[in-house]
Structures are given as structure tokens and as C-alpha cells.
Amino acid sequence: MSNSVGAVIVAAGRGTRMGTAESKQYLLLQGKPIIVHTLEVFQRHPLISEIVLVTGQEDVDRCREWVKAYKLDKVSSVVTGGSERQHSVHLGLRKLGTTWVMVHDGVRPFVQEEEITACYEYAKEIGASVLAVPVKDTIKQVDGEGKVLSTPDRRSLWAIQTPQTFRLSELIMAYESAERDGFLGTDDSSLAERSGIPVAVVEGSYANIKITTPEDLDFAEFTQRNRGEVQT
């Protein structure tokens, strides 16, 4: 299928900022693991035909159990990630068989269906796309001693989210190039940009948070309740 779309959901990190023994992606939100909420968004989306979940080696078995328990039949593989997020994504990309790929953080469960659709449409038109929001705060560029160097124009600054969408073959080439050169990017689009792939920004929502701290989890509970999407 020439326009088939897959998703690589990355949940291999073991963040320490949550202050819990459990990894953040497996903490419960309204009685369900955060990663399951995220997977369900892509499971429900009509564009998505295949999902690869990348997780830590010690979490593969329980993730496979959740895939069965929550009937996430678009998940074709649950694979062990690497030492860095970039390595984890690369491993996931190799398991996909679609034309397009969306790379998404496992701890962003509030991405909306229309945002996923818009990311795909922009990627088809431009070459690649990233979901993002305009920066609300004034940003300062600071040197190593804490001295302010400059104040960039806020109108040109966007906070980048996920999903980030690419033609699968092009992103794999960008990853292989980065690996050969020992380049470690901060996100997938930085590797695409490095390879000359044009990337469009798609305006998303400030609610599409990455749950990394206890405060984020509190906000997530509040958001989930307000949406009336509590599922048992």
C-alpha cells in the first residue's frame, strides 16, 4: 500500500525525574498504564496500519501481555530498545513494513486524532513533519558562566513534540548516516534535517505533554478526567 502509515512508539527510557521505582511509562493513569493509553490513540486511528513498541528488555514480556489484554492488534512487534533513544528508534524502524512512519513518545498519551492526521498530511506535502507548539516564555541564550548572550525572537521558536512523521526509507537512511558519523541528535527530525529532508512544523496542543515528573502525572489525571475518557 503506497501510503501505508506505521508508528514507532518509544518507551525504553528509565527516567529518574518521576521519583518512583516504576518507569514513568508504566505508571497508572486512571487505572491503566500510561503506555497503553498512548498505544490506544494510534490503535484507534484509521490511518495507522502497524505499530512497533520499543521498550526496555525487562519490560518486553509485560508489554506483550498488555497488547493482548487491551486488544492492541495493530502492534506487530514489541522490541528491546538501545542505550539511547536514537538507538531505540532505529531498532523500531527496522521492524516496520509501511511507507510512512510516525515516531511518538510513549509518555505522550494526549495526542489527538486530528493532530496525527495533520502530521501525515503535512509530511506528504513537504517531506516530513513535527508536531509543535509556539514557545510561550521568553527564552535566553546563556553561556557556561550563566551570563546572558542573547534573547531570540520568541515568534521564531517552537517547542517540539511528537509524533514526528517521515517517509520510512528516508528516515532509515538518515539514521544510518548518523550512525556512521557518530552523530547523536536530540530528536528524529534533527537527523532528517541533517540529511536534507525538509521538515514542516504542525501546530499542536499544549495539552500534549510528555509525562516526566509527578506534577505532569497530576496534570495528566486532571486532563483525563476532564475529557471524560475514563475507561475501566
UniProtKB/TrEMBL annotation:
SUPFAM superfamilies: Nucleotide-diphospho-sugar transferases. Its EC number is 2.7.7.60. PROSITE patterns: ISPD. The record marks 17, 24 as: Transition state stabilizer. Pathway: Isoprenoid biosynthesis; isopentenyl diphosphate biosynthesis via DXP pathway; isopentenyl diphosphate from 1-deoxy-D-xylulose 5-phosphate: step 2/6. Keywords: Isoprene biosynthesis, Nucleotidyltransferase, Transferase. GO terms for molecular function: nucleotidyltransferase activity. It catalyses: 2-C-methyl-D-erythritol 4-phosphate + CTP + H(+) = 4-CDP-2-C-methyl-D-erythritol + diphosphate. The record marks 154, 210 as: Positions MEP for the nucleophilic attack. Belongs to the IspD/TarI cytidylyltransferase family. IspD subfamily. Catalyzes the formation of 4-diphosphocytidyl-2-C-methyl-D-erythritol from CTP and 2-C-methyl-D-erythritol 4-phosphate (MEP). PANTHER family: 2-C-METHYL-D-ERYTHRITOL 4-PHOSPHATE CYTIDYLYLTRANSFERASE, CHLOROPLASTIC. This is 2-C-methyl-D-erythritol 4-phosphate cytidylyltransferase.
